[in-house]
Design a protein that fits this description.
7-stranded parallel sheet, 356 residues, alpha/beta, 15% strand, 13 strands, 2 domains, 46% helix, binds uridine-diphosphate-N-acetylglucosamine
């Protein structure tokens, strides 16, 4: 059986890595890895391939950045001849980025079977490009691998037949569990003993400069009580530069995007995580580190119900109050989430190999 994986952006890599490994032990299985090039900076891509011990891609489509339409169309145009020529039995797509939906659309029209890893998540917020990507990818996919029971319910409610859905758990946690011992041993000199770890990259937070200014201002204020460590996404860095906002230089550490292991080490030791990322809500829950999500909604409600996550929306006073509460020990404690056990990719590999 020939399985072709399509990845493109940073959050895809830690999801594809464990499935590539699990499938590599299956007999009579050939794998191809295609990188769309949606993320191309070394800090957003190469370093992840290296740390996650992923094979080099068989092809890089080098699509780069652009508007949603341009980027999605470019991925489709460049991917189509690759899959026509390589004739895979299955194409596996990951998560909710533009590369995911583009690949699902190309392959479903070529009548090549598509499997979606991390299917069924819904924020119910169609202003998020990722929500559109999730809805369409799930409609187009033949097999839907879900991380949690809420995702199955979402798919049932959309009329997707149960025969296409497999609850397998969370592949990102497979990677986290495998690499946590390495991250624990990393030397992270120069870190304050207690700190808030911040990541922000959603257009709704960083492209609205007035809102970004008020967020930076409250984070700056927080940093005087609890230092802030802020690895900055390229999109966010250019927005912050536009604002020219004076950040406290002794307590507010603005640093480049971190490789996987370094970021995991930072997350593991953080007093609190403040983020608008999807994956970080899950990782912080798994690590039992309190997480404040700067969004009005989440497609990962299990991290609120069972985990350490809390939405703070667009309320800077709530954000400030909750950080200070956590800093004094008033915090949520995570319960285990079913099937987030390090074996999700193995389950996916078994299902794919049964499906011939
Ligand atoms: C994409 C995903 C988002 C995911 C995020 C993780 C979509 C719709 N969004 O958002 O779900 O959470 O990746 O990072 O697919 N840039 C660089 N170097 C790079 C990549 C991007 O400088 O290697 C800059 C460019 O200015 C680019 C901007 O970041 O225009 C946005 O990149 P893009 O891939 O469009 O979306 P992300 O915001 O990264």
């Amino acid at each position: 059986m020939h399985i072709l994986h399509v990845v493109g952006a940073r959050p895809n890599f830690m999801k594809a890595a464990p499935l590539l490994r699990a499938l590599s032990t299956k007999p009579a299985t050939r794998q191809t890895l295609i990188h769309t090039g949606q993320h191309y900076d070394s800090a957003m891509s190469d370093v992840f391939f290296h740390q996650l011990a992923m094979p080099q891609p068989d092809a890089n489509l080098e699509v780069g950045s652009g508007s949603h339409a341009r980027q999605t169309a470019e991925i489709m145009t460049r991917l189509e001849p690759e899959v026509v020529e390589r004739k895979p039995d299955w194409v596996v797509v990951y998560g909710d980025v533009n590369s995911t939906v583009a690949a699902a659309l190309v392959c479903s029209k070529l009548q090549i079977r598509v499997a979606h890893v991390e299917a069924g998540l819904r924020s119910r917020d169609r202003t998020m490009p990722e929500e559109i990507n999730r809805l369409l990818t799930d409609q187009l996919s033949d097999l839907l691998f879900t991380p949690s029971a809420d995702a199955d319910q979402n798919l049932h409610a959309e009329g997707i037949d149960a025969s296409r859905i497999r609850l397998v758990g969370n592949v990102m946690i497979d990677t986290l569990l495998r690499l946590l011992p390495l991250a624990e041993n990393l030397n992270v000199d120069g870190l304050p003993p207690r700190y808030a770890l911040v990541t922000l990259h959603r257009p709704s937070n960083v492209d609205d400069l007035l809102w970004l200014r008020s967020l930076l201002s409250v984070l700056n204020e927080i940093s005087r009580k609890l230092p802030v460590v802020f690895p900055v996404h390229p999109r966010t860095r250019s927005r912050i530069a536009e604002l020219n906002f004076p950040l406290s230089d002794k307590t507010f550490f603005v640093v480049d995007p971190k490789p996987y292991l370094e970021f995991l080490a930072l997350q593991r030791r953080a007093t609190v995580v403040i983020t608008d990322s999807g994956g970080i809500q899950e990782e912080s829950t798994f690590l039992n580190v309190p997480c404040l999500t700067v969004r009005e909604n989440t497609e990962r409600p299990v991290t609120i119900e069972l985990g350490t996550n809390q939405l703070v929306g667009r309320d800077v006073d709530l954000l400030r109050r909750e950080v200070l509460k956590i800093a004094t020990g008033q915090r949520k404690v995570a319960k285990p989430i079913p099937l987030w056990d390090g074996r999700a990719a193995q389950r996916i590999a078994d299902f794919l190999c049964e499906s011939v």
